[in-house]
Amino acid sequence: MRHVLVVSGPPEAPRWQRAFPDGWTLSVTEAASRLGQGDHAWVLSDNDAWLPLVETLVKQGVICVVLSWLPRKEEAFQALGAGARGYAHALSSIELLHEVALVTMHHGLWVGPELLSEVVGATFRALGGGLADQAGVLAELTARERDVVLAVAAGHTNKEVARALAITERTVKAHLGAAFRKLGVRDRMQLILKLSGHLETT
Fold first, then answer.
1. For residues 54 and 43, is the Cβ–Cβ distance under 8 A?
2. Is 89 helix (H, G, I), strand (E, B) or coil?
3. Does this model's pTM top 0.70?
4. CA-CA 20 to 30 A from 53: which of 67, 79, 84, 137?
5. pLDDT digits over 83-128, tens only?
């Protein structure tokens, strides 16, 4: 796995460079054509091209982490909605960067505690008081797809959903796949963002 810092100008992330001494840098204009499946891209959000670039890289199978000099909740939701697996401060400690790398390369999601509480809060609103506002989002799903989606968004595993709904895990996966296609989302995180109104899809 290659760790690559994607920058819009001269590299100015000394802690990242110390964390990944064998890593290398690419410009925003080079990244899409030079990175592919399994690469680990750390994209600085200090330019207007970072969001479409993350979307492109994710489609190419690149694991993306967005680094921000001034982390903001709104930007974090944009990054996660684009498929990034992590969002962190560009001046994070070496130890923290190593942790982010470990989590994201094992297909996990890494966000800071403040953002995590926002995600949980958004999910709660979507599944509780805010659910009525999402009636249109869920309208095209079958009743069983809705049951599965809401259970998964609440944080339950496929096995737990299967047990609660008295169906097989295979059936849960089928309903979830159908719901993802109808809602235009790729994974559980995008589902949560969609339900909480933080992700617009077509």
1. yes
2. strand
3. no
4. 137
5. 999 999 999 999 999 999 998 998 888 887 667 656 644 554 554 5
